[in-house]
């Protein structure tokens, strides 16, 4: 009888031979919810930090104590003296600065990336120097150089060059100064894009296929740097539209200087024009960001239609191959 009765050790199932029905249920795991309340509080405080001043500025421009709400500050902008000229001048300076900065930075960084990687720290230090030099020191040096024209170069052909770069309708000297100030931002944006792309392999493959250097630059490298180029243009545009120190000390009147010049006589209009400049800047930056993330080909493009048609067409094989 004792031999037929299983002992406690034999009756207990082993770790590898236990039955699923007799196994003890697993303890339920407790999942902690993320503290979304604190996330909402932080986002709400950040949004209030940016929106409350804008709302207060808008209320100041449309509400007059004792008179009610009026949009005269906005309707009088188009007729204000110098509004259109200063805005177009700032946009033209921004476009010229973007083009010049990219023409200087893109070939230099691509050449360093392909042919001389050891020079990258030197180029980085040179591009980052404008962050160390304050704008007031930069404009002092520029004004000193511009005084060389009438003082020392009045009888040389370079004197006309000094006068041309200081033309009030389009002061190219501001483009040169803004290009120097924008170099750190342009360098960082392009360097990040070049680090994400294997440029030497792309260039070698394109050159082995017989592509020329202009084709390699415009059809192979630049399409892969589209988002980086848009980011560089994004930062340069914001810098030029908001720059005041250099333009004011050199005696020119772009959009930022014009806003400050009318602030004393037309306080509401100056605040309204500041809000309008923010809206214009946001719209332009949104357009640049969309241009940087836009696909290279659309579904209705001829190239994509041709590729889709070729993929749908079955390949014909000869009887020998079959």
Summarize the structure.
The protein contains 16 helices and two strands.
Structure description:
The chain has 322 residues and is mainly alpha-helical. Helix content is 68%, strand content 1%. It contains 16 helices and two strands. The protein has helices at residues 8-11, 36-62, 72-75, 83-114, 120-132, 135-146, 148-152, 158-164, 172-195, 199-208, 213-224, 226-242, 245-250, 255-261, 267-293, 302-312, and strands at residues 63-64, 68-69. The chain has a two-stranded antiparallel ribbon with strand order 1-2. Helix 4 (83-114) runs antiparallel to helix 12 (226-242) and helix 5 crosses helix 9. The chain is globular and about 75 Å long.
Q: How are the SSEs placed, and which strands pair?
A:
Elements: H1 8-11, H2 36-62, E1 63-64, E2 68-69, H3 72-75, H4 83-114, H5 120-132, H6 135-146, H7 148-152, H8 158-164, H9 172-195, H10 199-208, H11 213-224, H12 226-242, H13 245-250, H14 255-261, H15 267-293, H16 302-312
Antiparallel strand pairs: 1-2
Helix pairs in contact: 2-15, 4-9, 4-12, 4-14, 5-9, 9-12, 10-11, 12-15
Features:
322 residues, mainly alpha, two-stranded antiparallel ribbon, globular, disordered N terminus, disordered C terminus
């Amino acid at each position: 009888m004792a031999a037929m009765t299983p002992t406690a050790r034999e009756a207990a199932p082993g770790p590898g031979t236990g039955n699923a029905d007799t196994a003890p249920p697993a303890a339920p795991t407790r999942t902690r919810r993320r503290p979304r309340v604190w996330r909402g509080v932080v986002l709400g405080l950040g949004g209030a930090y940016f929106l409350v001043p804008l709302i207060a500025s808008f209320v100041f421009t449309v509400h007059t104590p004792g008179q009610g709400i009026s949009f005269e500050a906005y309707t009088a902008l188009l007729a204000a003296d110098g509004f259109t000229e200063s805005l177009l001048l700032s946009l033209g300076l921004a476009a010229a600065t973007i083009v010049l900065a990219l023409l200087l930075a893109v070939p230099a960084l691509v050449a360093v990336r392909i042919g001389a990687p050891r020079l990258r720290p030197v180029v980085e230090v040179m591009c980052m120097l404008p962050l160390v030099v304050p704008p007031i020191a930069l404009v002092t040096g520029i004004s000193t150089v511009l005084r060389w024209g009438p003082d020392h170069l009045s009888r040389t052909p370079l004197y006309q060059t000094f006068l041309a770069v200081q033309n009030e309708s389009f002061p190219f000297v501001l483009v040169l100064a803004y290009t120097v100030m924008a170099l750190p931002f342009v360098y960082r944006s392009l360097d990040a894009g070049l680090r994400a792309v294997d440029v030497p392999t792309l260039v070698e493959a394109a050159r082995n296929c017989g592509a020329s250097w202009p084709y390699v630059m415009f059809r192979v490298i630049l399409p892969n740097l589209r988002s980086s180029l848009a980011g560089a243009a994004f930062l340069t545009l914001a810098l030029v539209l908001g720059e005041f120190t250099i333009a004011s000390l050199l005696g020119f009147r772009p959009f930022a200087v014009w806003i400050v010049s009318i602030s004393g006589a037309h306080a509401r209009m100056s605040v309204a024009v500041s809000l309008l400049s923010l809206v214009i800047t946001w719209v332009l930056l949104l357009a640049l960001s969309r241009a940087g993330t836009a696909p290279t080909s659309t579904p209705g493009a001829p190239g994509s239609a041709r590729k889709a048609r070729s993929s749908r067409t079955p390949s014909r094989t000869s009887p020998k191959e079959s």
